[in-house]
Amino acid sequence: MDKRYKVQVKDLHKSYGSNEVLKGINLNVKPNEVVCMIGPSGSGKSTFLRCINKLEEPNSGHVYVDGYDIADPQVDINKVRQNIGMVFQHFNLFPNMTVLQNITLAPVQLGKMSKEEAKKAAYHYLDLVGLREKADANPSKLSGGQQQRVAIARALAMKPDVMLFDEPTSALDPEMVGDVLEVMKNLAKQGMTMIVVTHEMGFAKQVADRVVFFHDGDIREQGTPEEVFDHPQHEDTKNFLDKVLNV
Amino acid sequence: MQSNHWKKFITACIAVLGIVIGWQLVEPQQASADEPTYTFATNNTFEPFEIQDSKGGYSGKNPGIEIEILKKIAKHEHFKYELKPMSFNGDLQALESGQVDAVIAGMSVTDERKQKYDFSTPYYTDGVMMAVAKNSKITSMKQLKGKTVSAKSGTSAALFLKKNQKKYGYKIKYFDSSNTMWNDVKIGNTAATFDDGPVLQYGIKEGVPLKIVTKKPIDAQPVAVGFQKGKNLELQKKINDGIEWLNKTGQMKQIIDKYTKGNKTAKNSAADRTIMGLLKTNRAALLRGLWMTIELTIVGIIFAMIFGIILGVLGIMNNKLAKGVSSVLIYIFRGIPMIVLAFFIYMGLPNVLGHKVPLFLAGVLTLTFDEGAYIGAIVKGGFEAVDKGQWEAARSLGLPYGKALLQVIAPQGFKLMVPSLVNQFIITLKDTSILSAIGVMELTQTGTVIISQNMEGFKMWLIIGVIYIIIITLLTWLSNYVQKRMA
Question: Where is the ABC transporter domain (chain A) (predicted)?
């Protein structure tokens, strides 16, 4: 475990039956770094992201977050997860609660804040995503883009050091994508460590410190946006970029 | 908000539970002053030995030969008694399992039974008689070849029929109560019925449209009180002393004559037999039965919900053992017919436990396990139907399994379950009628008892059926209202 890194992944393997989806991944993420993961569907990038907070159990290898190895059964995964925010493709807001309750649930239940503090914090994050007036609304009354921004606020309310985004704009109508990306850009500017699985190449180009190209369960190529987008070294990368950029 | 509702609900459940348990604990103590209390199994349709009044009890002026005898003996020998009216078969099983201390139900003393039970001094001689429909041409057993005859299972009439089946070539149909058995003869399903002489005589005197064709009682046998072999010797002695005293003082003959000679017991034969009249006469009994049905339903549903939620939660856990336990329990209790489960708990378990299971408790346990298994399957399905993303979102925030389940999954799951649960509650209400088989005096059993006195099967079952429809309609309305409020 290297103290310089916020997230350190070592030789991570994951299979579903005989199908190996991750074939020994190594990746280090420094504090404040924004890493965008791109690649064809089925290349393993989402599975990799879900291994970082143990939503998927790795078969072997190590994932260190803040110095805790999540593969170690001695480590209390619930504690580690409190420091890893996650945003899902389908938002996954709790439909049985209001927007405000969605955000205050975890901080209050986990004893991080009193009810009053949590409410204050919730309004702060709702301001950040521009949805203060929706605090008492039911999630089902919001548009997809609004729901995703609430989901981001919900994750932020736990004051995580790392944020994981799993294709956060894939399920959105095109006109909603901009608002969500704007929120993410602001987060990046404020120095949040972020790992983002995305198909938004423009966002990756503009915001990422590093772009990681996944292919067939492995990292084929990585580097600065310029390196990967403008001077791709690997044939697979070129093919992929040809397909997504020249539509 | 949500969690507040649950808290209120759970508090309410615990309160009801506490009341019921408290009541169960307090009730038996009221009976036990300084005199010992014995429990007697008896027959609910066995005139003239036992005659229940319109409230289903024996507190009327003519409670029957054996009840009057017991009443006198109890007073003379200083003990208290509690009566459990059941079918005769139920009486015997209850005695064997120790649910009761003795059986007083026109029980004839046979050699076979003597091996199994102890008997008191006989107080009556009883023989089997054959009766046919009023317009039947059958006059002797020789005419029964190929025909169907009936007797109550476990009675000496049944033994007699079995013994002579080859000789006369009839088919035997067994019943649990005289009333249904006689009715079967009346409507022509069975050619002849074999029952205890005095029972038949009394019934015919009260208006049953049968006639007795036997001249002399067949297999005349003495009637006595039965006890578990070698147990309750103290009670046996008290009963024997009492019978001796009754014989000596001539009271025994008085009591028996009252029911078999003359017209002293003639009941209110001119009573109102319209539906309104029947409702009026049997109002108290019906209300008591209805209340017992409601009580069983409510307490049963509460415990079945608790059991079902436990099964459901075990069933969705990421633990093979928990999952296995849940599926096996659901499989077993859904697989056993409820009536078998009731018999097992009420009459089977006491053999192993060594003490009796109170009737109400046995009923509630039966409902808990049977309905609980169905509710378990519903709860499991409801939780599983909640989007997997909800689990992931909750867990990724750092919420532990239990908190994620309670705060996020359960409220959504229960909303999905409500229609199935309501359906199960209605089934539970109807299923309480099955508990009449072990003698719980709920609505159905109350109906059986009332009909055994007035023989108004059609009208009474109509009344009972309508009562069930009414309470089920009310329950449906209530649940629709709750569902609307929840939406």
Answer: 7-241
Domains in chain B (CATH in brackets) are 3-25+280-486 (1.10.3720.10), 37-123+224-267 (3.40.190.10), 125-222 (3.40.190.10)
Q: Residue A232, preceding bond cis, omega within 30 degrees?
A: no
**pLDDT over 70 for what percent of chain B?**
89
Look up the domain containing A33 and give its range: 7-83+161-246
Is the model more confident about B459 or about B62? Answer: B459
What SS3 class is residue B46? Answer: strand
Min CA distance, A195 vs chain B (Å)?
15
Query: What CATH number is associated with residue A77?
Result: 3.40.50.300
Residues A143/A96, Cβ–Cβ less than 8 Å: no
B398 and A105 in contact by Cβ < 8 A?
A: no
Whether pTM exceeds 0.80: no
Residue A88 forms part of a structural domain = no
Q: What stretches of B336-409 show up as alpha helix (H) in DSSP?
A: 338-343, 349-353, 359-385, 388-396, 401-403
CA-based nearest residue in chain A for residue B400: A78
Does B416 touch chain A if contact means CB atoms closer than 8 Å?
Answer: no
Q: What is the dihedral of CA B322, B326, B327, B333, to 10 degrees?
A: 160
Which of B396, B399, B400 is opposite residue A55, by nearest beta carbon? B396
Cβ partners under 8 Å of residue B141, min gap 6: B130, B164, B168
